[in-house]
Amino acid sequence: MKTFRSIPFPRVAAALAGLVSAAVLLAAAQLAGSWFRAAASPLVALGAAFIDFTPVWLKNFAVETFGTADKLVLFVAMGAVMAVLACLVGLLAFRRWSRGAAALVPLGPVMPAAVVTRAGAGVLDLVPTVAGTIAGLASLRLLVRRIPEGSRGTAAGGGGGAAVPAARGASAPGAGAAALPAASSGPAASGPVQSRRSFFAAAGLLAAAAVVAGAGGTVLAGLRRTAQEARRMLRLPAAATKARELPAGVQSAADGVVPFVTPNADFYRIDTALAVPQLDPQAWRLRVHGLVEEEFTLTFQDLLDAELKESYVTLACVSNPVGGDLAGNAKWLGYPLQQVLERARPLPGADMVLSTSSDGFSASTPLEVLRDGRDALLAIGMNGEPLPLEHGFPVRMVVPGLYGFVSATKWVVDLEVTRFQDRTAYWTDRGWSERGPIKTASRTEVPRPFARVPAGRVAVGGTAWAQRRGIDRVQVQVDGGPWQDAVLAAGAGVDTWRQWSYTWDAEPGSHDLRGRAYDKVDGLQTGQRADPMPDGASGWHTVRVTVEG
Ligand SMILES: Nc1nc2c(c(=O)[nH]1)N[C@H]1C(S)=C(S)[C@@H](COP(=O)(O)O)O[C@H]1N2
Ligand SMILES: [Mo]
């Protein structure tokens, strides 16, 4: 408390002025941005740039540690850093206006840079940033001027022991508001106390305005979400080729194993998009070009009119650690990419298709994979519904057998037929592999890690996958003992995962349950531990449980 009271009022006020002005800046930008596109909101653009420029190790750490909450963590961290910077800007501006202004404007150069470097940005995208910066500067000026003049030199005099006459003359900042009315009620109330009042009134007013503008901008942006509306109105056509009916018994016999078909709402989501791209299907175009005999453009209506195919395909993320949950199985409806390529007729020498999304993400998919007859789709439907916005509405790629980062481009708008030696994709530029076939994996879902279970018969179960090859066998081992075959649930084709169960006669104590899968082509999955970086994790999943006596 003592140290707090000894912070002179002008400094507290200056920091507050910076903080409030930063809020004004962002709120004004948000409001202006809501008139344009979501990508133009400076906060989002800043976050997106943050993501693009974060070192790979930190990004991996964030995904591994916070999973799907990684974006929330990013926003909170960004907020904290910005709050500190804003306070410093206020202090600077109080000392010398020009320096503070110059320090605020980087939220100038940085934000426009962030906005402009987003793929698909135009000059109009600068309007929100410029508007926000002007509002922020005005607010800063207004507030800094209301800080009592006499104390200006003091704030500049850094040392804690420096005298602070003007501030000390009135009550200390920690003394509470109760002291203020009495002191300022007299007719001669033109001293520091009145200045304080006037400062706080202005700061309060500006802060309130920022809240209103920010909230208003957010609501407005919401109203402009035509994508959500278009999705609601969309009726999917029937598939010309339906998915094979799922056989009975695809679900593991063990209770607690994930559903065989992942509901859309539970499907893992991984992408670099802070604001979910809002694409209007009416305006959507897919440009097909590059090393092809025929370049052309597809509209959404072209897809609706085409012969569509339905297929169960299990997606997996390359960042999924052994035993992790970044995998999901859905019934996709879409237009075969093979047809797209047949029309385009790739030229000799082409060996890759670079797919790019509306927000600049890109993936490099081997050309032959898209032509070998597997159900590689331009998907528009997921489990009988139009794609959810966060899963790529209106169109995404789904390619069985490849990790999402090299194949599953959401909000896809561009396909370039090219060569691996000529072009690289988003994650390849960040140290990940240029190719990404999915590795055979098995994960034990029940019992959960560190569960306590009663002795006796314990149901063990999980899910295994080896897209394109198919799961052949799963085995379980207790405490390094002999490997036992698990019971496989029914399979639904080589591109979907396969569940399993095993009844364990559990004796009291602490035990390690290890599982491993065989696929139909390469046999036993490798037990060699590997991190997700650069081309997917490997190793046998082990779960430690306690059996109670
Ligand atoms: N536009 C875009 N598409 C993308 C990504 C992305 O960051 N942006 N991430 C890819 C990755 S790494 C994965 S694992 C899958 C995840 O798809 P899902 O979010 O629908 O599960 O999307 C892929 N498609
Ligand atoms: Mo991924």
UniProtKB/TrEMBL annotation:
Key word Cytoplasm present: no
Gene3D superfamilies per the UniProt record, alphabetical: 2.60.40.650, Oxidoreductase, molybdopterin-binding domain
Matching PANTHER family: SULFITE OXIDASE, MITOCHONDRIAL (PTHR19372:SF7), SULFITE REDUCTASE (PTHR19372)
Protein name (record): Molybdopterin-dependent oxidoreductase
Residues spanning the signal sequence: 1-22
UniProt keyword list: Membrane, Signal, Transmembrane, Transmembrane helix
InterPro entries: Ig_E-set, OxRdtase_Mopterin-bd_dom, OxRdtase_Mopterin-bd_sf
Residues covered by the Oxidoreductase molybdopterin-binding domain: 274-426
Membrane-spanning segments: 73-94, 126-144, 199-223
Organism: Arthrobacter deserti
Lineage: Bacteria, Bacillati, Actinomycetota, Actinomycetes, Micrococcales
